[in-house]
Amino acid sequence: MKLKQLNNRERALAGIILLVIVLSGYGLLRFEPRLENIQRLEQQKEATLNRLAKMDIPTQPQEGIDEIKRELEDQQKALDAIRESAVQIEQQLAPVDSQELKVKISELARDSGIRIRVNEALRPQPLKNNNRRGNDDNEIIPPVTTGWITRMSPGSMFQRPLQRLEVDGSYLALRRFIHGLDELPYQVTVIRLNIEKLEISPFRGSSQMLKTEMILAL
């Protein structure tokens, strides 16, 4: 049957049917991919909910909060004790280039019966900070294996003035001198001690004289 043979009503009905077919095809092509995405998201949501349902979520920390607070308090007390000890040690040290302490050491040597041959300041090489990310002014903490002279060199956190002595005296006189250092008003530490016998033989009944080199940290 040809379109010309249809009346107006039949033509309108045919047009409506054709429009419905076109719209249905367009809707299928337009919304089918989105429907697949929605279904995939629904599956992912269900899988996530299943994983969450199987997770073991602790209801409270493994360690009690009170125990953690006690540990923090203990660490703070230990830190305060270290700071207090550092302040006490610093108060026992003489001011840098203290002439008073050097005079006290000379007087102690005389009273102990030893003769000072050399009494000079020891100035080791300053330490260099090789940390590229650090400031050159930052103090260095040398390892223990470097020795006390290096550890007390300029640039070290433990920097102290060093004094080199060469003295002559008997063993008893040297012992009195070293023990007398503990009685001085400021802390003095012997960080190096080398003892040799003098080539001169002692008189009969006299003690062997010793030549001693010592480095003192003032």
Concise description?
This protein is α+β, with helices and mostly antiparallel strands and 218 residues long. It has 5 helices and 4 strands; from the N terminus they run αααβαβαββ. A 4-stranded antiparallel sheet has the order 1-2-4-3.
Produce the secondary structure layout.
Blueprint: H1 8-54, H2 65-92, H3 99-112, E1 115-122, H4 148-151, E2 162-169, H5 171-180, E3 189-197, E4 210-217
Antiparallel strand pairs: 1-2, 2-4, 3-4
Helix pairs in contact: 3-5
* Assigned CATH class of the largest domain: Alpha Beta
Rg from Cα: 46 Å
Please name the fourth-level CATH homologous superfamily of the largest domain: Ribosomal protein S6/Translation elongation factor EF1B
Shape: rod-shaped
Side by side, the strands of the main sheet go 1-2-4-3
Rounded mean pLDDT is 76
The proportion of residues forming helix, as a percent range, comes to 40-55%
- Uncertain segments: none
SSE order, as H and E? Answer: HHHEHEHEE
Number of strands: 4
Distance, first to last CA: 124 Å
Structural class computed from helices and strand pairing: alpha+beta
β-strand amount:
15-25%
CATH architecture of the largest domain: 2-Layer Sandwich
Major sheet attributes = 4 strands, antiparallel
CATH topology-level fold name of the largest domain? Alpha-Beta Plaits
Tally the structural domains: 2
How many helices? The count is 5
